[in-house]
Amino acid sequence: MSFAVVVFEKREDGERAIDALNGYEAGGRCGNRRLVVSHFPKSTRFFSLQEMLFIRRRKTTKEQQEVKACSTSFWRDPGATFCSVCGEDKENHLELKCPYNYLSPATYSPCKVRLALWGNYTTTLRYKCARHKEEEQREPPVHDEANSRRLGFMRCFVRVNNLPEQCHPEELAALFSRFGPLRMWHVATGRSGACKGFGGLVFQKRDHADEAIEALNCHAFGDRKLRVDWAYPCLNC
Fold first, then answer.
1. Which SUPFAM superfamilies is this protein grouped with (predicted)?
2. Which domain CATH number covers 80?
3. What is d(CA 96, CA 83) in angstroms, rounded to the nearest whole number?
4. 187 forms bridges with which residues in the sheet?
C-alpha cells in the first residue's frame, strides 16, 4: 500500500485539504489513481492528531487482478510440516523462500545447491570431477543424514519449460497429478499475471515423477509442446 503523511500548522487547513483532495485523481508512473485522504489514525501518536492527515491510494482493479493471479500460481500441501523442495522444517522456511528452489530467485542460493549436489557424500565416484575424486580417495565419504533427506526430496522435483503465456496453473497441476499425488506446484508469473514460460512440481514419490516425465515430455499443452525434465538431473542419473 502506498501512503504519505502531511502535517499542517492549523487544523482548519487540514480539513480544507481533506474536503478538496479526497477522491482526487493523481497521475504517476502507474497511471491515474484516486487519493483517499483522511485524518491520521487515532491509534498513532507521533504528532498532534489535529494536524495530521493520512493519505493513501486505492489499488486499481488491474493491481488487484495481478495480486490474485500471483496468489493462484503456487500451491503446497496444506498438511505438510516441512518444505516440499528440500524437506527442511517449516519453521526455518517454506518453498517460496527455499534456497534450493530455483523458481524463487530472491532466495535461491546456487552455492548451497552445488554443495548439496556435489559434496563428497552426494554422488558416486563415477560421476565426480577429477578434484572430487582425489578428495574422496584421500578422505572417506561423510554420511550426512540431513543432506540425504534433502536430496531425497530434491529427486522428486520436476521442472516444466515452454509453458504458454496464458497457462492455467490448475490445469497444469491436474495434468501431472494423474501420475501421483503432488506436494507442491509453482508456475512463475510476472506482475501482469502472465506465465513466464516455466514452472515446477514436486511429487511425493520419485517413481511417479519419473512416469510423468516419460509421458509428458513433448506433450501438447495449449499451443506449445512441454519440455519436462528433472529440476536436478544429476541426482537421477
1. RNA-binding domain, RBD
2. 3.30.70.330
3. 9
4. 199
